[in-house]
Amino acid sequence: MDGRYILQAPKQVDTDIFEVLQVPEAKPSEWLKETLVKGNAVGYDPALHTIKEIDRLTKSLGAEGIRLTPVPENPIDKLWEKDRPRPPMAGIVHHSVEFSGRSAAEKIAQVQDTLKEDNQDAVLLTAPDSICWLFNIRGGDIKHTPVALAFAIVPKEGRPTLFIDPAKVDENVRGTLQSITDIAKPGELDGALKRSPSRRRRCGSIPTPRRCASRRRWKWTASNTLPARILARCPRRPRRRRRSPARGPRIFATARPWCAFSLGSTRSAKRAAWMRSPRR
């Protein structure tokens, strides 16, 4: 675990059973190589580890004769069936263009243009911030972070598909989303990947789970998170003097033509929108 919990963990776990190690000083790959021997296998849940992470571990452990094996069912999930908390089901809300700077349709069109330029057929989005940015939505599934847990597939042509629990989408938001995307349940993602027609390449974002890469006919190209990658191509505004709505004195501000993803409070979002407005 990281340094934020290295003092707390020994007080809350049985150290006779668990050894508490701090990362990055202690690396899982090094611990496994010191603990296991040639011919051993390490099971892992492909839904909890990224493509890049498993590829790196496979290379590192393979040099020592240790192999990685995906497990069909997580054993912790089987033990935790009775008293496990229910998944978060906070409703999503539409994030107005007043604060987002661009409509979801415009963002989707630019993503599809980027896919065509990069010779990719589709992008699978698994990062909540990228998904909320793209579809101009906000949620409450994670404390203190207004995002919704979901998945999305954006093809280079045609309508994207947003995989989100229907209980999170009320009728008003559903009407807005259905004008730009198809909506499906998260459990339908694997089936959608299997049914996808054979194409030359697919583009997967860095946090994509390894289980998605195992779907047939999918070839993966890792990329940066979507908002950062798209906005990196956007020209910056010239520096202008602005008057802060909260403090009054003039300040210098530079900004892109639109805000990628505002995670701040409503007040912060209003300030960001004010900063993007024409000079008064």
From TrEMBL:
InterPro entries: Creatin/AminoP/Spt16_N, X-Pro_aminopeptidase_P
Pfam families named in the record: Creatinase_N_2 (PF16189)
Protein name (Swiss-Prot/TrEMBL): Creatinase N-terminal domain-containing protein
Source organism (scientific name): Methyloceanibacter marginalis
